[in-house]
Amino acid sequence: MISVTISAPLAQAATLQAKVYNRSVEGQINYWAKIGKIAEENPDLSFEFIKDTLRAREEALAGQVEPYLFD
Hints:
The protein is mostly helical. 63% of the residues lie in helices and 0% in strands.
């Protein structure tokens, strides 16, 4: 783990968003960094697609999936 300095406005925004989404401030900043990294590496993907893909991945890892059956 390393320490970084962020601007006061960014820290305030992270604090607010963390409360809204029931995350720690550190968790919120890590979430933003993860989304930003994915978006930067995949500029053709929308924010919603990235969020949905991350959600689907977590659901699959938790075993909350059902096989798709072709008719």
